[in-house]
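Late entry, evening session. Most of the bench is empty. Finally got around to the prediction I had been postponing all week. Sequence below, unchanged from the version circulated by S.P.
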Amino acid sequence: MEPIAGQEPGRLRVTIPLNDMRPLHQELYGVNCEMMRRLSYLDSGFQELYRAAEKPIIRYPGGTTANYWNPFTGFMDVIPGHEHRSVEANEAIRKRTGGSGEPYGEFFKFVRDLDVPYSITLNLCTLSVESNRRWLAAVRDAGARPRFFELGNEVHYNEYAGFFADGAAYAVTARRMTDVIRELFPGARVGVVIPNVSYTDEVFLDELRPAAKNNRRYDDWVRQLRQDVFFDAVILHLYSTYGLPPDIKIEIFPPLAQTYRNAMAHQDGRFDVCIDSAAALFPGKDIWLTEYHLGGWTPALRQYPLSDSYLGSLHSAAMLLKAARRSEITMAHRNTFTAMLGGTTAADGITRVRNNNWRHFLLLGEALRGSERVCIPRVAGAERYSGAGKYRGDYAEIETAIFWNGSSGWLVIVNKFEREYRLAPSEFADHAADGICRNGSVLQYSPRGDVPLEQAYGDRFIMTELRMPLCPDELVLPPYSLTRVHISR
């Protein structure tokens, strides 16, 4: 959808309730970062980009990979019926490492040298609890002290029924593994996998078929984990869908603005519903979003370009703002940092550049890393929209959060759609005792203006960047823009 021409821009008034702050969890700024098939964690180009990105917490060794990776061999275990998870991956690892397998010592050297925050996803599918104990003991003896552990990746799906017949089988293994972790790493926090059906029915696996949910398995899974809450957190993966059929033909791919609107409506319609559901089922437990972004898992949908596009990144910027405002969510990993490394023109398949996803992510990361608290500003003057596709409702066109550190902070605004808004920082209202919040510098990203809109919306590397040392009397928020304003008291 094109920007609305000839319409008076909306004027926003922002109330900043500094007396209603809540703690900000630094682990919200995280990435899924599986690189076994790509390059080493010791690669200087990767390390430069990671350090420049304010060192988000890294999820190691990744997602589906974690369910098959064997740290003793450095390769994926090949299991009958699951060869598609291992054979091609092993060839890539063999090619990258010269046949020696993925050396986990490289990751822990990277962690040590750069003081990297990280979490570990354990393989509970092809490794026994005792095998995991041996590996974790070796990790501990080498000096590492992991603080966060995930007990498997998406193992509630039917694909893993051969490893975990039901929720009871998972709960028994997860309980035993938790006891080992608490023995080896006192104070570490442990998360268990729960189904994400309150967000989507889609299965995040490479299958050309409609979503295949199994409510009986999922209900049993949750019921078993509620009976013995030995863990610290529950784990969700939230991927918004495009609203497209799984076998759509490439020749009839719709415009990016249409599928982006579908995905944003999915996020607006289901995010808080999903978090409310998890919080009600597991009161007092942390919620970890160890993967979030955009979905599209069939061969056809994997070719749809929204995920890596400018608009795709804007979608996930809005989701991170939502996560930061929910006190129950204490960790989040954007999927994936390797997609932020650029294109595939270098000899090793990676170009180390700052693409649009990377720069959007950093805008948020700088605000998060520089803050201790967060609050939800109240915004007057923003229009509403009625959703899209099967996610209909009354949703805001503007997504905001305030990140705060003592006497200063950042107002971050996502203008989700095609309407232009204007913001007068002199009108910021502060409910704290000592009055008005004064404005400072501005960083803003919006779609590039020198090419047709569809190309601008889909661009991975070029966008319009606006930097100002002081916010003007009236700040324009262009369509589909991400804006950060520094404020102080």
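Two things to note before I forget:
The mean pLDDT is 92.
The chain has two domains: 10-20+374-488, 25-370.
Will write this up properly tomorrow.
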